Model the fold of this input.
Amino acid sequence: MSVASAVSDVADVIVIGAGIVGAACAHEFAVRGLRVLVLDDASGGATGAGMGHLVAMDDNAAELALSHYSIDLWNALRGEMPDACAYRNCGTLWLAADAHEMDLARAKQATLAAHGVAGELIDARELAASEPMLRAGLGGALRIAGDGILYAPVAANWLLQRRPGIVRRRAKAIAVAGASVTLEGGETLRAARVVVANGIGARALLPELPLRPKKGHLLITDRYPGSVSHQLVELGYAASAHASDGTSVAFNVQPRPTGQLLIGSSRQFDTEDPCVEPPVLARMLRRAVDYLPALADLNGIRSWTGFRCASPDGLPLVGEHPAQPGLWLAVGHEGLGVTTAPGSARLLAAQMFGERPAIDVEPYLPGRFLSTSSVAGELA
Done:
């Protein structure tokens, strides 16, 4: 029996990537009774390096629709998650630096409310009582109680183990052509469908994809239980998150269940050097200390970097490759891979099986960047 026919007998779908997006896709297919082979290159990727927040983002209507939908799907799973997934419904405080920024908070509240996301405006006094480590003089905040956090590497592993029908194989894909995958070493695998869900690694498989790596730094502190209760984010975060060039930083601090504080965030284009860059880290920490002055006296124990996979419009590519029937994409999630993983998986499956999706899929379709002739090289 050939390798190709043997794999077709044991898998209905091959998923490339075992991070949070690939795991969510595999889980969704397994829920539907499909047999799934997941190819895991053990790189860790963005899932192993990110903050793990579940946050309703509203830079545009499509981003908000997907993030809100996906958070609802996470909430449907939360009761079954093991403790190691570290899920916490801590909520987010979007911080207004002054009275002027409270106008931004009100506008954000209205935008979110129009899409079913509840938010509460709190004044400076209530903010200080809620988070006493924040510097004095802030204008107030918008509290989004439905946001949360989890530990993405464990959550991905849990999704891959939760349902029967998923086989995880340590292997690196080096080429795709329609519904076939070539592995490092030359082995070719085939199934009815192949899903590329390996983040920035998708560029090596499909150079025609308009994906760019966006480097980020994080730092985690020693344990200081009770010092921060909510995820804290400055209202200017969205502008930083969606910058298209250069280096930017924004204040974002997350309380981990361990009592540690996870400090972000930075964004850099045009570098693929994984090393921690002291000038960028210092700039990020200065921004953090500006909002939380007491951070300067805490002990930071580790810093690291990772690479988000960014598309030109900041939205993921979720759907079938228009030039390669049988090849499906779930890439380009940038900093919202954890938030939007189950929603992306559900939308992908709905397209595969001709179902009516819960939200409009048009903004995420790969065809907005790829034509029916967008094929790099000749297909084998």
Residues 90 and 167 are 34 Å apart (CA to CA). The mean pLDDT is 93. The longest strand covers residues 300-310. DSSP finds eleven helices and 19 strands in the chain.
